[in-house]
Design goal:
The chain is an alpha/beta fold. It folds into three domains: about 60 residues, no CATH class; about 170 residues, 3-Layer(aba) Sandwich (Rossmann fold); about 70 residues, Beta-grasp domain (Ubiquitin-like (UB roll)), CATH 3.10.20. Helix 1 runs antiparallel to helix 2 and helix 2 packs antiparallel against helix 3. The longest helix is centred in the first third of the chain and has 25 residues. The chain starts with 6 loop residues before the first helix and ends with a strand. About 30% of the residues are buried. Bound molecules: guanosine-5'-diphosphate (GDP) and magnesium ion. The site of guanosine-5'-diphosphate (GDP) has 20 residues, from helix 4.
Amino acid sequence: MPANLPPHYFSAEKRYREAKDPREKIEALELMLAIMPKHKGTDHLRADLRRRIARATTEAERAASKKGYSYRIRKEGAGQVVLAGLPNVGKSRLLGTLTEASPEVGDYPFTTRNAMPGMMKFENVPIQLVDTNPLNDQNARAWLPSLLRSCDAVLLVVDLSDSPLEQFDAALEVLREFKVVSGTEKEQMDEGIIKLPTLVVANKNDAAGAAEKYKLLSKKLAGSLPSISVSAETDAVLGDLRRQIFNILNIVRVYTKPRSGKADFNDPVILNAGEMVEDFAQAVHKDFRRKLKYANIWGSGKYDGQRVSRDYVLQDGDTLELHI
Ligand SMILES: Nc1nc2c(ncn2[C@@H]2O[C@H](COP(=O)(O)OP(=O)(O)O)[C@@H](O)[C@H]2O)c(=O)[nH]1
Ligand SMILES: [Mg+2]
């Protein structure tokens, strides 16, 4: 043991021994490492601390994924859509209804302690939904803005059994603090502001007086943002909500048809709206954009097998046979 370790090193070590979960362990170990004097005599000790930090980090990640919690959410599926709103509006309940995830639902604020992802299926498209802490939760300030700014779309959830108009204004205000504004397309604006496609989800339409409040909310939105009235409690299917979530992502599904065979309609290629035949070709294989000569297309509003060129803009549901 090298001598001359400062006394607060030992109090950090005590905290480490008494730590109840991996996160506390990591904090104490990092403190010990920071306090430890850096010279030859402490090389081994410092290496040992780093090993223990790595081990505790793995442990923390494992514990987090068991509970379904995570700080960074890896994108999966055709898009990442964040549920955002004030406490108690039904974000967690919606995630539980739309996906296989089982977030904590409670009739008291701040039940969701961290971001929690779940996969929603709209027809044949998997879409990732992420439940989050309430927008006004100070504890979430460290990570919620970055999660929002990097996602593909937002579900702004308000509560029709409460004051949805005030909640909508309050939510937009917090989003503005996060440098996020609502719109219909994702866009990088001036001064680091991100515009995100947003669907206003007016939840708890089973509550008394909900229809009247939804009417007022729709009037306020006046077509500036899409909205939908739902009940996470009584509507077990929420089919229209799934479709609208798909819609705000501005994506299209295009299917591959082999030259002598049928298209596989279970496995769409996901493209951004406005992308063309050559973008589809590239998505199928990186060399195909260059090699592509033409394609035959099947879809609504076309003749079956109609020949189209590489700059033809694709629509949801089109099927293509590529000629390389
Ligand atoms: N009546 C009714 N209650 C709901 C609905 N959705 C959620 N709740 C209730 O509202 C409370 C808060 O829900 P929760 O999902 O935890 O809200 P969060 O804080 O936004 O995640 C819970 O008691 C839910 O059971 C709904 O559509 N109708
Ligand atoms: Mg919640």
